[in-house]
Design goal:
14 strands, two-stranded antiparallel sheet, 24% strand, 4 helices, single chain, alpha+beta
Length: 264
C-alpha cells in the first residue's frame, strides 16, 4: 500500500513461476511441438515442461516433483496454460527492459539476458552424481560453481589470453591434465581486449546400473554467460586417454538450458 489509500500495481512478468517449468525454471512455450510445452504430470494438475516430463518418466517409480503423486502415463498438454502463454504480453522481469513481449520473443530475449533464471547444470559429489538443484540467474552461475562445485582435485582457475587470428576472429587454447574417478570440472577464464568470459570443461563417466569394461566418458564445455554474448566459431578438444590419443571432437558450449554432451 502507498500513502493516501493508493495501491501499487504489481504487473506480472516472465519471471513469475506460473510461466516457467518448476524443474528446469525455463520459460514454458505455447508451441505444442516444443520441448518446453507445458504438460500435466499428475491428478493435481501440476505442470512441467515436456522435456522434464520425459526425464521424470525414466525413473523407476516416477512421481510428481511437487506433490509426489504418481506420474500420468500419457502426455497431457496443459491447454489452459498454453492459451495463457499465447495471449500474454509482459516484460522480462529479470533485467531492466520494460518492453512487453510475447512468449516467443521473451524466449529469444532470455538467450541474451544475464538475469535469466536457470538451474545449475553441474553434478553434486554424492554417490549417484545427482543433478544440482540450485536455481539462479546466469550472471550468478560462476560464483555458485566456485562455491559449491570445487573439491580437492579441482585445478585452480586457468587464465587464458585470446589471440587475434585471421578474419577478425580470436583463438584461445588451454591444456589440462586430469586424473579423476567419476566427475571433473576444469575452470578457465578467457580474456579478450574487451572482456573476460568464465567457462569450464565438464568431464564425467557415464553412470550405469551395470559395471562396464568400457565406460562412456561425457564431455561438455559450459559457459557462465548469455548465449549471444560471445559467438563461437569452433570449439574442439584433443584428448589423450590411456592408449587413445589425437582425438579431435567438436563440442557445444552450453549452460543448463541446453544439455548436449559429446560421448567418447
Amino acid at each position: 500500500m502507498l500513502g493516501d489509500g493508493m495501491r501499487m500495481e504489481v504487473r506480472p512478468t516472465w519471471e513469475d513461476t506460473q510461466y516457467r517449468c518448476q524443474i528446469c525454471t525455463q520459460i514454458l512455450s505455447c508451441d505444442m511441438s516444443s520441448e518446453m510445452c507445458p504438460q500435466i504430470v499428475c491428478e493435481n494438475i501440476h505442470t512441467v515442461c515436456r522435456k522434464c516430463t520425459q526425464s521424470l518418466k525414466q525413473e523407476q517409480a516416477p512421481k510428481c516433483p511437487q506433490c509426489r503423486q504418481p506420474l500420468k502415463k500419457d502426455d497431457v498438454p496443459n491447454r489452459d496454460v498454453i492459451f495463457m502463454l499465447s495471449i500474454a504480453r509482459m516484460r522480462c522481469g529479470g533485467c531492466e527492459s520494460g518492453v512487453d513481449m510475447p512468449c516467443e520473443t521473451d524466449q529469444k530475449h532470455a538467450r541474451e539476458c544475464s538475469e535469466n533464471h536457470i538451474t545449475c547444470p553441474l553434478l553434486n559429489s554424492d554417490l549417484m552424481l545427482s543433478q544440482c538443484t540450485h536455481s539462479m540467474s546466469v550472471s550468478a552461475l560462476w560464483e555458485h560453481c566456485q562455491q559449491f562445485h570445487i573439491n580437492a582435485s579441482t585445478h585452480a582457475v586457468a587464465m587464458v589470453n585470446a589471440k587475434a587470428c585471421e578474419n577478425n576472429w580470436m583463438s584461445a587454447t588451454m591444456s589440462v591434465s586430469m586424473n579423476f574417478e567419476r566427475n571433473y570440472y576444469a575452470y578457465f577464464t578467457i580474456t579478450t581486449p574487451t572482456n573476460q568470459y568464465n567457462m569450464c570443461v565438464h568431464v564425467t563417466r557415464e553412470v550405469c546400473d551395470v559395471i562396464r569394461a568400457d565406460p562412456k566418458i561425457l564431455l561438455c564445455v559450459r559457459r557462465c554467460f548469455p548465449e549471444t554474448e560471445l559467438m563461437f566459431h569452433r570449439k574442439i578438444i584433443s584428448l589423450e586417454i590411456g592408449s587413445i590419443c589425437g582425438m579431435i571432437l567438436p563440442i557445444p558450449a552450453v549452460v543448463s538450458s541446453c544439455k548436449k554432451t559429446c560421448r567418447v
